[in-house]
C-alpha cells in the first residue's frame, strides 16, 4: 500500500482515473507548443522582418553597473527558460526521492535506454560533421521533448499500457539530466571566478535556509535571483541556476504539501502553457524559403540532426534498454512488451524544445537555421513514425472484470 501511495500523485497526472479520461498538463502543453511553433513558422515566413525585429529588441533590466542588457530573444532563452529548467529540477528531485529513480531495478531500463538514446545520436551527428563547422552541435540530437512525446501517446488511447507512459516519462527525465550536464560542461563560455564565488555563496545561503527549517518558498526568491545573476555573469549558462535550485528544494513527507510539491503544482502550468510556448514562438521561426531549404538539404548539420533523432534515438534506446533486460539488469513495467519499447524509442526522437535550446548555444544565425530545420523535420518524422509503430504493435487495454461481476459456473448437481 505504501508503494502505491507514493507513486499515485506522480502517475495520476498522465493516466486515466476512475473511468474518466484524465488529460495531463504535459499533453495539453504539447498542443500549446505545437500551436506556438506553427505560429512562429507562419509569422517568420509571412513577415520575416517584423519577427526578427521583435525578438531582436533590446531590453535592459537593472541599475548602473548591475544592469543586464540583452535582446528579447536572449531574455526568453536565458531568463524565462530558467523557470522551465527549475521545474525540470523539481521533477528530477521528486523522481530521485520518491519516484521511479528511487528503485534501481525499476529505473535501470529507462535510465540505460536514456543513456543509449543520448550516446548513439551524438555519435551519429559527429559522424556527419566531424571536423566541419557543425561539429559543435553534437548535443542537439540528445534531447527528448516530453510534452510532444506524451501527447502522441495520449492520442493512441487505450492501446498504450500505463507502464509505457511511465517508461517514456522516466527516460525523458534522465534525458533532461544528460542535457543539463552537457550544457553545463560543454556549452559554457570563459568563466569568471568572482561571479562563480558569488553563485556558490548563493547556494550556501539556500542550504542554510534549508538547515534552519525555512519552508516558505518565497524566502528562497532572493537567493535564487542572486544565483541566476551570478551564474549568468560567470560564463556558465544561466539555466543551470534553475536546475540547481530545483534540486535543492526540500521535500517533506506527510499529509500536507511541502515546498517541492507546492512549487511544482503552481509553476508547472505556467511553464507548460506560457514559458515553453513563448520559447517556441521566439525560436521556431525559421524562414522556409527556397534558399534556406536548399541549404538545409545539402547540410551535414541538418542531416546529422535528423539521422541522430530519427535513427539514433530508436537504436540507442532499444539496444540499451532491451539489452539490459536480456542481461537481467532490470525489468520492464507491467504490460509493456519489447516492441512497444522500440516505439517509445522512436517517439524519443521528438527533440524540439531542448534540442532547439542546445542549437542556440551551438551556432550563429546561419548554421542555426540549418539545425532548427533538422530539429523540426526530425520531430515531425519521429512523431508520425512512433504513432504508426505503436498503433501497429499495440492492442487496446481491457480492464479486468471484477470478480463480483464474473458469473459463477453452472452446477450440474454432481460433486
**How many domains make up the coordinates?**
1
Low-confidence stretches: 1-23, 397-406
Question: For this structure, what is the CATH class?
Answer: Mainly Alpha
Going by CATH, the architecture would be: Up-down Bundle
Radius of gyration: 23 Å
Task: Classify the fold: give the CATH topology.
Answer: Na+/H+ antiporter like fold
Secondary structure elements and pairings:
Layout: H1 2-11, H2 25-46, H3 48-56, E1 58-61, E2 68-71, H4 72-98, H5 104-129, H6 146-155, H7 162-186, H8 193-211, H9 221-234, H10 239-248, H11 259-283, H12 290-297, H13 300-326, H14 338-347, H15 352-362, H16 365-393
Antiparallel strand pairs: 1-2
What are the key terms here?
16 helices; mainly alpha; two-stranded antiparallel ribbon; single chain; Na+/H+ antiporter like fold; 2 strands; about 425 residues
